[in-house]
Amino acid sequence: MDISILAFLAQDGLTTGAIYALVALALVLVFSVTRTILVCQGDFVTYSALTLATLQLGLMPGTLWLLLGCSLAACTLDSIAALRRGQSRRVPGLLARYLGLPTVLWVVLDTFELAGLPAVLQILLTLALVTPLGPLLYRLVYQRVAETSVLLLLIVSVAVHITLVGISLLMFGAEGVRTDALAEAVFMLGELPVGLQSLLVIASALLLIGLLYAFFGHSLYGKALRATALNRKGAQLVGIPTQLAGKAAFGLAALIGAISGVLIGPLTTLYYDSGFLISLKGFVAAIFGGLASYPIAAASAFFVGVLESFANFGASAYKEVIVFTLVIPVLLWLSLKHPHLEEQH
């Protein structure tokens, strides 16, 4: 193996690791705020890539109907709750809040020639279709069981993932797709060809990591989410709405997943069920940080990506085994480090 092959594998691993880093950060975020291991985080990635590919073909994406159905269901639940409390004046506002965006998106998608839209508009439409699914899933599924055990929340997450995979198969079919490249330029770094698409993925991941750091460290909403993560009941006592914190965490996770799907779509073929492996590899990185440390999770994700790239070159039949085996020593170390750690309610 010469230096050019090593450099190529490292480049490929860092590009893949950037996506895993974003997934890992979303997993840590959601778990910190809601104690939920978001198994369906990878589904946001695949939904985004498949939705963008559908738009590029000039077709109406099924994601619109999923968004509309979830919005109707959430609006119905909140409207019934408002009527039971005698707050009928809230119903028009709820209708506008839940159905405004899906209606606008429906009109836009039905009016314009989708395949002829600029790439930037196609990407913005994809983000607008996928990102609201996060808060809606929290409202429809997780909000009712928010105070239960981590194990039950994990079981619910698995059920949500299986449901989303089935819906994805129904909407997009079983064929894999790749989206159009965001940047096709390639330049030489010595003897190594470096794709601008790969640099865009890595730069976007680093930018998002930096924005998340600034959000949690220097914004009021970020500090509220951190407070909810550190002490849920204490946050409730000082007036922080934990339900809103949960929706915000799921919304950020869905946005991160949607951006990840846009970035990874041109680099690899994605299928309706590709999200599970993406979630698992992001989870491996998140485990390195104990599902609590953002920097360790991000750094570990890049390591997982590089390891997978080299394993794919030297032992492709065992690359998944090699990556997932990393979890065992980390879990053993965490169990020895925190032998009496109990779940907090």
From TrEMBL:
Q: Which cellular component terms (GO) are annotated to the entry?
A: plasma membrane
Q: Which UniProt keywords apply?
A: Amino-acid transport, Cell membrane, Membrane, Transmembrane, Transmembrane helix, Transport
Q: How does it sit in the membrane?
A: Multi-pass membrane protein
Question: What would you give as a GO molecular function for this chain, any one?
Answer: transmembrane transporter activity
Q: GO annotations under biological process? A: amino acid transport
Where exactly are the transmembrane stretches of this chain?
6-31, 95-112, 118-138, 150-174, 194-216, 249-271, 283-305, 317-336
* Superkingdom classification of source: Bacteria
Primary place of residence?
membrane
Keyword Cell membrane in the entry? The reply is yes
**Location in the cell:** Cell inner membrane
Give the similarity note: Belongs to the binding-protein-dependent transport system permease family. LivHM subfamily.
Record protein name field? Branched-chain amino acid ABC transporter permease
Which lineage is the organism of this entry classified under, starting from the top rank?
Bacteria, Pseudomonadati, Pseudomonadota, Gammaproteobacteria, Pseudomonadales
